[in-house]
Design goal:
Rossmann fold, 17% strand, 132 residues
Length: 132
């Protein structure tokens, strides 16, 4: 079964680009355009991995990340923060909250695919270890 990636990003061209690159690599992709919808989608139909922009309407990425990592049902979903805000303070904050990755825009397609693969493999390995 293909790894499902949820993209929470409000810039349509970035959603289109990420979707194309990830689908070409065999991932299933869903996308939402605001933070509130991202959190609802996480709870309703949890993906295997979340790519999260920090600057989202209706609920910013920091708030989505905090809520997801505080929720027992969602905290194990790996999160890659993808943002134009590349300050060290932002990186520290998302790492403290629990994000597994931090990438700045513009991003390298190759790097994001590699990071998604790494986290998806680790997620699958973790699930396999939990099954008796």
């Amino acid at each position: 079964m293909a790894t499902c990636v949820l993209i929470a990003e409000d810039e349509p061209h970035i959603v289109e680009s990420l979707s194309f690159v990830l689908e070409r690599e065999g991932f299933t992709v869903r996308a939402v355009l605001d933070g509130d919808t991202a959190l609802r989608e996480l709870r309703a139909n949890a993906p295997d991995l979340l790519i999260l922009d920090l600057m989202l309407p209706r609920m910013n990425g920091f708030e989505v990340l905090k809520a997801a990592k505080a929720d027992a049902a969602l905290k194990r979903i790996p999160v890659i923060v993808l943002t134009a805000k590349g300050q060290a303070q932002d990186r520290r904050m998302v790492e403290e909250i629990g994000a597994e990755g931090f990438m700045t825009k513009p991003f390298s397609n190759r790097e994001i695919v590699e990071r998604v693969r790494e986290l998806a493999a680790a997620q699958t390995a973790g699930r396999n270890l939990e099954t008796p």
